[in-house]
Structure formats: C-alpha cells, structure tokens
Design brief:
Paraquat-inducible protein A; elongated; 8 helices; 12% strand; alpha+beta
C-alpha cells in the first residue's frame, strides 16, 4: 500500500508525514509550513526539460576543448576524449580509465538512464518498480563523480600559472560539461520517485 492510499502526504522540506486534508488548498506542512503535495507538480515535464537541455549541451561538451595547456609560447587544446587518448599514449592507463568512466561513461549513463526511467513511467513499459527504483538510486549515487574533470581543471588552473613558461586555461567545453553535470543532477532531483510506485500495479502486480 502506498502512503497516499493511507491518506498520508510527505513534506519535501522536513519529511514530516501529514494527514491528507481534501479541503486544504494548498495544504501546508504541520511542522515547517511548506506546501505539501501528493506528487511534485509538473515533475515529469521539468525533468524532461532539464534532461533535453543537458543532452543538447553534451554535444559541445565533448567536441569543444575542455582545457588549453600553454608551454613555452605554444598551446595545445584537448577535448575530453583527446585527453584520455593522450593519457593512454603516455602509459597512464589507470588515470585514463578513471577520466573515461567519470567524464564519458557516467554522464552518458545518467542521460540514458533518466530518459529510460521517464519513458517507462509515462508509457507504462514492462519494467518492475524494483528495477526502476534501483536505477534511480544508482543514478543519484553516481552523480557526485561526474565533476571529476571540472575539479581537476580547477586545481590545475589555480596551481599551474607560470606566466609565459606554462599555464593552463579552461575551455568552453569545460563550461558545457559542468552545465551537463549540474542539469542531470537537477533532473534527478526534480523527478518524483513516488511516480514509480504509481505504476506498480499496472506494470507488475506481483512486485
């Protein structure tokens, strides 16, 4: 049984359970006074909007240089993939694997995973509620690792600054990539996981 079937609503701010009052418009939390909803208003629409924007920015994030290394008057710009290939060429396989997973595989998985989650909920696709909630929790968990490239670039820009001898500058790709990470994190936050359980009986009566 869902909480809504028992007449209970949860506050998104303080997580207080509130008894549903059909006559209250809007209903306020008894603890903190925040608005309480059975489901987040326009959750799917907002999540789709954030996800599509992130998918559009994912293209320049991978095509534009993420940073430029200037050394002795000459500069070399690298995209995420060219940086990974350069690390492989230098024999730094573990670092190349970490950068590839954190900067390419993780954002791609988040984009595809959230899109599949939204599509399965909206179209009642044959995916159990357990599979959906596991996917949702995994997407939330891996989101924190997507900023690895941006963190490394920020450290290098601050540390490597020797004027004309050597310097590192962030590229437009870094801005696009950071936007993708932030937008996918917001998409995961705006998605209401309770919508997964609303489809449980339709998708799998035994779950």
């Amino acid at each position: 049984m869902r909480a809504i079937d028992a007449g209970l609503l949860i506050c998104h701010e303080c997580h207080q359970l509130n008894r549903h009052d059909p006559e209250a418009h809007p209903q306020l939390c008894t603890r903190c006074g925040a608005h309480v909803h059975a489901r987040r208003p326009n959750s799917l629409v907002r999540t789709w909007a954030l996800l599509i924007t992130a998918a559009v920015l994912y293209i320049p994030a991978n095509l534009l240089p993420i940073m430029t290394v200037n050394s002795l008057g000459s500069g070399q710009s690298d995209t995420i993939m060219s940086g990974v290939l350069e690390l492989v060429h230098l024999g730094m396989f573990p670092i190349a694997a970490v950068v590839f997973i954190a900067s390419i595989l993780v954002p791609t998985f988040k984009l595809v995973g959230i899109a599949l989650l939204l599509y399965s909920v909206q179209r009642h696709q044959p995916m159990s509620a357990r599979q959906r909630i596991l996917m949702y929790r995994f997407i939330e968990w891996i989101g924190r690792w997507s900023m690895l490239d941006i963190f490394v670039i920020a450290v290098l820009v601050a540390v490597v600054n020797f004027g004309s001898l050597a310097s590192i500058l962030p590229g437009y790709g870094a801005t696009a990539f950071a936007s993708v990470v932030v937008l996918t994190m917001l998409a995961a936050l705006t998605f209401d996981p309770r919508l997964i359980w609303d489809n449980t009986e339709l998708d799998d009566p035994h779950e």
